[in-house]
Protein 1
Amino acid sequence: MLDAEFQQPVSGIVETVDRAQTSRPRERYRHWLGSLEPRADDAGYQTARGLIEAGRRAGLKAADGRLHLLVISGDRSTTSSIQRGEGMRRAVSEAGDVSIVQEVFAAWKREKAEEQAEWLFARHPQARLVWAGNDLMAFGAMQAWEKRGGKPGRDALFSGINTSHEALEGVRSGRLTALSGGHFIAGAWALVMLYDYHHGRDFAADEGLELEQPMFVAFDSRLAERFERRFGELDFSGIDFARYSKVKNPRLKRYDFRFRQLLD
C-alpha cells in the first residue's frame, strides 16, 4: 500500500496521514510501502503571490498604503491546510506591503465561508484581497461580496485551490484571480511507483520512503482553457503513464511528478 495524499477537486475533502500518530513506512505495517504527497506549500504560495501581484496592478491598497488580505483556511490540523497556509505566509512575507488583517477557518465549506466573509467584509472595509484554502471557500466569499454589491475580479480579488470546472471557468472569466491545482493526480503517480516496486525497482533506494513532490501548477486563463480542452470530462486515458516509470525507462533516475508537463 502506498499512501497518496490529495484533495478531491469538487468535494474539498482532505485525506491525510497524521505523522505524529503513526510510525514510518515499513516499520510497523509491512504493507505500508511508502507515502507520496503533493507539496502543498506550493499551492498556498502560488495563489497568494498571484493575488498580491494582481492587487498591486489594480491599485487596491488601503489608506495605509498596504494591501489588506483576508485569509479563509480549511482547518487548523490537517497537513494540507497547514502547509497551504505556510506557503501563503511565505508570499506575504516576501511581498513586504501586505497585511493579513484576519484569518478564519471554514472547514473547506462554501456556505461556512460565505457566512464568515459577510462579517469579515463588514469588520475590515478596506480589505480587497481574499485568499482561500480551496475553490469552494473562495466562491462562498465571492457570494458574500456580491451581496454587498461588489464585483469579484474587479473591486475585490479572490484566490482558490483545486481544478473543478467552476474554478477553471472562474479563472477564464476573471472572477477568480489566482488558482492552483493538479494535486488530484497524486493517485496516478502512486500507481506508477507501485508498478515499479512490483517489478523490482524499489523507490526507497533513490527516492526515500516519504516523497513530497511539486505537483501544483498556477492556472491562468490560457492554461485553464488547455486543461478544459484536454481533461474537461476528467478523462485521463490519453496520458501514457509508462513514460514516468523507471522500469519502462531504465535511464530515469528520479521521478518527475509535476502536473504542468501533462498540459504541454
Protein 2
Amino acid sequence: MGFNNLIQKIKTAWPKVLTILWFLLPAVFAMVKYSLGTKAYNNYLIYKHVFLNIVRQANLYDFYPGSYLYQNHYGPSFSLIIAPFALMPDSIGILLWCLANALFLFYAIKKLPLEPKAIQMVMSISLLEMCGSIQSQQFNPMLCSWIILAFVHVMKGRTAIAAFFISGGLLVKLYGIVALLFTPFSGRYRSMIVWMITAVLILACIPMLYGDASFVLHSYVDWYHRLLGKNQENIMTNFTDGMQDISAMGMVRRITGISSLSNMLFLFPAGVLTLLPLLKRTHYDDNRFKLFYLAQVLIGLVIFSTSAESPTYVIAVTGFAIWYAAFGEDRPQWMKWMLVLLFLLTILSSTDVFPSYIRNSLIKPYALKALPCVLAWGVITVQLLFYRRGNIDAAQTTG
C-alpha cells in the first residue's frame, strides 16, 4: 500500500512538477551555457547578429570568426524575432531567449484540442527533446509552436492569425510553409491566399524599418543562395561528423553507403502520401483525424529534410507525442513499444545517459535517431489513408 500511495502522489503532483521542469530546465541550461563562454552559446550569437548585421548593413551570411563560428542560415525577417534579446546583455538575452522558446511551445501544446491528461502526455514526451534543443539555444521549439498555433487557428477559422504564424515560419526558416496544408480543414482558401500575401509582405518589409531597404532586399537573395549551398553541405557531411542530414534520406544513404542517392526518391512519394489524406473530406470534422494529420506533418517536416539535425527533432518528437496522446487510452501494445524506441534512439541517444560507444559507433554513423520517427510517420500515414470514424486503431482495419 505504501508503494501504491507513493505512485498516486507522484501522479497527482506530476502536472505541477512538469510545468516547473518545463521552464526551470531551460533556464538552468541557458545559464550553464553562458557560464562556459561564447563557444558554448555560439548559436545565440549567430541569431543575435542577424539583427545587428542588418543594422550595420553587414552581409548576413558571411563568416565572422571574431563574433561567432559558422554561418547564419536564417532569413532577414528573423531579425525581428531576435531584436529584443539582441539588445540585452548576453547573460540576460540568452536566458530570456531560451525561456521564450519554452513558453511558446508550452502555450501551443496547451491550445491543442486534447483533454488535459492528453496535454500532459504530449508535454511529458516532448520535455527532454525540447530541453535538448534549447540547450543549443535553437529556434526549433518556437517554430514548432508556430506550426501548431497555425493549425489551431485554422481549425477556429482565424485565417489572418494563422497566416502570420505560417509566414513567420516561412520567412525565418522556410519550414513554416507546411502549415498551409491545414487550409483545407477550414475551406477558406481565398482568405488564406489574401492573408498570406499580406503577412509575407508585412513581415518581409519590417526589417526595413531598422535597416536599409535595398540591403534587406539583397539579403533575401543572399539567403536563397546560402540555403542552396547548405543543402549540398548537409548531404556531403553526413558521411563525416554525422551531425547533419539526420533524415530518412540520410539514414538510407549512410546504411547503404550510396551518397549519390537522390532526395527526390523520398520527397516525391512523401509529398504524395502527405497530400492524399486531404482527399478524405468526410473526416474534416473529426478532431482525431486532424490531430493525426498534424502529427504526420510535424514528423515529415523533419525526417524529409536534409537540414535535420539533433535539435530539430523537438518538432518530430512533439508530432509523435500528439499522435500518441490523440490515439486514446486503449492504444495497442505496439504503440507503447514504439514510444520506448523513441525514447531510446531519438531522445536519450543524444544525452550523456546513453552509452557513448553505442551512440558514436551505431546511432550517429547510421542516423538512427531518425528511425523511430520514420516508423511512426509510416504508421500514421497508413492510419490516415485507411481512417474510419469511430475505429480507434485505423491501421488494423487494413489487415
Protein 3
Amino acid sequence: MNRIAVIGAGAWGTALAAVARRAGREVRLWAREPEVVAAINERHENPVYLAGITLDPEIVATNKLEDAVDGAEAVLLVTPAQHSRAVAVELAAHVPPSVPTLICSKGIEEGTGKLMSEVLAQLAPGRAVGVLSGPTFAGEVARGLPTAITLAADAEGLGRTLVKALGSATFRPYWSPDVIGAQIGGAVKNVLAIACGIVEGRKLGDNARAALITRGLAEIVRLGLAKGARTETLFGLSGLGDLALTCTGPQSRNMSLGMALGAGETLEAILGKRNTVAEGVYTAASVTALASRLDVEMPIASAVNAILHQGAAIDEVVAGLLARPFKAEGDLG
C-alpha cells in the first residue's frame, strides 16, 4: 500500500496524514474547507485544526473527494462519527470495493445506534473494513512523539498490511481481530471523559476521578461483551489505554468540555466557542440507548446523557450516583 487517502482534515486526520507520510506513503488529504486546503498546500500547516505543526510538503490536500481517493490503496475515514454516513455514501461512488477503509473516528451513530463498521457494512457490503483506535492526542502524534494504538481488522493479512503501511518507530499499531471491541472502547471513553471533566470542574477530587475511571471501565466491558467484543481488547490500548488518556489529560476535547460544564458553563456556550467536535456529546445519547436495548446497566454514561441532553442538574445527578445501593465489586452497576 503506497497511496493513502485520508478523508477528513481535522486535528486527527491531519495527524494521520503526517503518520502515513512519515511511514513513506504518498498521501492525499481531503478537507471540506478551501482555507484548510490552501494552508496545507501552500504553507504546509493546518492552523484551523492543528496549529503549530509543520507538515511534510509532500502531503497534498484537496476539497474534491474523487481526487483524494483516485488511485488510493487504502482509505482512512476520519470524519466525525455523526457525519460519517454521508461521507461514506460519497466514498462508495468513487472507491472500488477492493480498497479497504480504515475507520479512525470514534462514536456510535445517533438514531440507529450503529457502530461505524455497521454503517459501512450497510452502505458498502463486502468492503474490507478496519478500525484504528487508541490513546492518541493528535498534536503529539503529529509531532512524532511515541504512540501505540490498536489496528483492528477481521482478516489478519489485511491488518498486518495496514500496520506495515502506517507503522514507524514512533507510531506503533498493534493488530487485533476485534473490530467491535476497538470501536466500543473508543466511543464510550469519550462519554466517560466528559464525566471525569465534570469531576475536575466541580473539584470533587482525585479519589472520585479514579473511582469513575474504574467503574467506567466496567461499563465499557459490559457493553462490549454484550456486542460481542473480546475482553482483552477492552483492557487493551483501545479500551483501558484510551480511557486512561482522555480521563486524565485536559488536552482531551471531551474532558475539557466536562471541566467547563463542572465549572458552571452551559453546553451551548461551550460548543459555541469551539470549532472542533467533542464526540462524547453526541455519543452519550447513542450509547445510553444502545445499552438500554441490550439490557446493559451503564449508570455513569446515563448520568452524562442526563446532564447533556435532559436538563439534569449536575449536583443532583452526582447525588443520585452516590446514593446507589452498595454492591459487591463484580456486581452489575
